[in-house]
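Table S5 (text form). Sequence records supplied for joint modeling of the two-component complex.
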Amino acid sequence: MSYHDKYEAVIGLEVHAQLMTQSKLFSGDSTAFGAEPNTHVSPITLGHPGTLPKTNKEAVELAIRIGLACNCHIERYNYFARKNYFYPDLPKGYQVSQHTTPICKGGHVTIRTASGVRNVQLNRIHMEEDAGKSIHDIDDNNTCVDYNRAGVALVEIVTEPDLSSADEAYHYVTELRKLVRWLGVCDGNMEEGSLRCDANVSVRLKGETKLGTKVEVKNLNSIRNVKKAIEFEIDRMINVIEQGGTITQQTRSFDASNDTTFAIRDKEEANDYRYFPEPDLPPFRLTETFINDIKDAMPALPEELYTLYHQQYGLSEYDAAQLCLEKETTDYFNEVVKFTTNYKAASNWINGPVRQYVNEHKIAMDSFAVKPQQLAEVMQLIDEGKINFSVASSKLLPALLADGSKAPIQLATELNLIQVSDSNEIENWVAEVIAKMPEKVAEYKKGKKGLIGLFVGEVKKASKGKADPKVVTTLLEQKLSG
Amino acid sequence: MKVTDELIDNLAHLSRLHFSESEKTALKGDFERILNFVEQLSEIDTTGVEPLLHMGDAINVLREDEVKGSVTRQEALLNAPLHDDVFFKVPKVIKNPSA
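The corresponding structure-token record, covering 581 residues in total, follows.
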């Protein structure tokens, strides 16, 4: 037993998610990623005197949407505050943020780990504006600043110190990313910085109730890095304590090249941000109607669908979870099951050949060209014994993808894929195979029953895949036992 | 309220301003006079009165999510003390790792 087992970790995560608005939080500048530097800027973004910011309604709606999905309390009376500090990427000398009245309070995100299902408690979700981008390696003597990102709408989603392992943190960020994408709140792109994660990590002896000194780890630009950084940090802190050292409160950065973290600054005296209500922005009051309209327009959430698929449709936990990985997949599945009640087959098709196809072609599920009704028809052909799954997925599906205008039955017929269940024709192929392999037949008759698969395979070959394997097996067994 | 040297130094730091000793002494006097003037308000009993956060009655002043109002890069850079054709420039924030 390692000395690590004496300790437990306490982890809280702060996730910044860029809201999927067209324009910024307080100005009409575009939020499109990858534009030429300093082309998405206005006098408001640049903090010129005499300009007046105005709150983007869509940003408020998106923030409420994620809050409702996380079971948060939605604050009815909201106003913004100024957080004052100087940094070149902050043109106004303050960041406008909901420091005092976060729009969403409390709530939770449900995660499934190897140890079961649990709710990760949230502290708050609040809106704020993003900063610009400093570039340090273009000019030897100066830092270059691009203000395209300055003022873009973000929500900061803050958990309670409620996570206890790197693995839980991994599942939480995975789930949260899925949720914001599901709701169209954020595109979830961690490489482009649309979703950013900071982790507050501390360790303490098991049984201890006081929190240990925490370290904040930044620069976690993938879900994998969130996990790796926390793993490293827990390990590092335990080793420091075991060697008689003390943890200092620090901000650290993750180095993805070797999965370690390094200190970027020690926490000096507490920062003095001198928050005060933003006088340029009137407060906003949310009515029940406004909130209910948002609620009514929300899609079914992954948790609801998971429960539906597992409990009502009888799918396995694994199948249900696989379907619920992305909204597009559940949308497709929900359409298919309008045309069939064979839920298991629909799930197998979508989690199998359909997913394989979209992954291979790097397309989204909603661009998959076979219509849900057509897929249901293919499944019907299989259920009726007209075609088998293997031929359907390897031949009929590609044909449907190439020509979606024809009905599956028509395409299957044209391609000569309809399997033969007629015993007479199959009997000929069976006889042919038996005659061709007298030695194997003798072995089978002596008791080597496993050879049946070989015979079935040979008949399949002789029939070019058209013989119904069930009929073939039955016939073979009859003939060979005779 | 007593204005200390520490308070002056802290405010100067937060404002990124530098003052000579004689300026600091003058500031101290000014600050004290300003604060004493404002402190007269504390004579009023405000028990049960909500803080006044916003000066007007305006509420729910929201805009639709439309892209408009950006200026050209040339215009954006026009008033910056230091810039090239693309970027605003400021003194080095961090040491150049390659230098």
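Note: The first strand of chain B starts at residue 62 and ends at 63.
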